[in-house]
C-alpha cells in the first residue's frame, strides 16, 4: 500500500484574494492539501476567523480590502516577506447585488467597480513583480461577463471589464513568462450563492432558478471551480488569455429536453 502523501503543489506559493469563503476557500484547501504554501485575504472578521479554523496553521490568513490601495500595498509587502515569490495569483475577491438599474446608487456603483475591477488591476500591478517565469494569474469572473441579465447590469459590466483586463494583462505579461486566464462560473453552491446582500428567501429563489435554467439541472460546487482554477494555474502551460466556463452548459446555448 502506497502511503506517500500526494503533494503535486509542494514548494508552490499561492495568493488568493477573497479566499476565506466559497470558491476561494475551496481552492486554498486544495492547494494546501497538495503541499502548497497559501495566503488568503478577506474583509469579514467572521469569515477570516472561520478560514483560520478550516485551513489550519499552515495557511496565512490576512485581513485586506481588495478595493484599498494601502491594503494592496501592505499585501504585497507581506507576500514579499513571507513567500518571496508567487507561483499562483488567484484574483477571486468580488461583490454582487441583484437590483434593477433604477435602484442603483452612485455609492453602490462605485463600490462594485472598486472591488471587482480597480482592486484586481492594482493587485496584479503590485504583485506581478514577485511572479517568476512559469507562474500564473487566474481571475474569477462570471458567465455574466457577456450577455445581459435583469438586475445585474452593474455586476455584469464589472465582470466584462475584468475579463477584458485579463486579456490585456495576458498580452503585457506573456514575454515575462506569466500566463493569465479567466474562469467564469455559472450558478455555484456557495454560502452567498454569489449574491452578497440577498435574503434567505432570495437565495432560495436564486437556487431554484439556477437549477431550472442550467442544462445540467444543478448548481456547481466550489470544488469544481477550484479544479478549473488549478488547471489553469499548473497544467495549462501553453494557454494564456483564455476563458473557461464552469457553468453546467448554461453559457453554451444548450437546450436539453424538459426535466
Give the structure's gist in a few sentences.
It is built from 7 helices and 9 strands; from the N terminus they run βαβαβαβαβαββαβαβ. The protein has 259 residues and is α/β, with parallel strands linked by helices.
Label the CATH architecture: 3-Layer(aba) Sandwich
Order of strands in the sheet with most strands: 3-2-1-4-5-6-9
Strand element count: 9
Biggest beta-sheet profile: 7 strands, parallel
Q: Which fold name is given in CATH as the topology? A: Rossmann fold
Q: Please report which band the strand proportion falls in: under 5%, 5-15%, 15-25%, 25-35%, 35-45% or over 45%.
A: 15-25%
Order of helices and strands: EHEHEHEHEHEEHEHE
* CATH C-level label: Alpha Beta
Distance between the termini: 44 Å
Number of domains: 1
State the helix count.
7
- Give me the Rg, rounded: 18 Å
- Large-scale geometry: globular
Helix content: 40-55%
Average pLDDT, to the nearest integer? 93
- What's the CATH H-level superfamily name? NAD(P)-binding Rossmann-like Domain
Unreliable runs, pLDDT <50, ≥5 residues?
A: none
Structural class estimated from helices and strands: alpha/beta
Written description of the protein model:
The chain has 259 residues and is an alpha/beta fold. The chain has one domain: NAD(P)-binding Rossmann-like Domain (Rossmann fold). 42% of the residues lie in helices and 15% in strands. The strands form two sheets. It has a seven-stranded parallel beta sheet with strand order 3-2-1-4-5-6-9, with helices on both faces. Strands 7-8 form a two-stranded parallel ribbon. The longest helix is centred in the middle third of the chain and has 22 residues. The radius of gyration is 18 Å and the shape is globular. It starts with 12 loop residues before the first strand and ends in a 13-residue tail after the last strand.
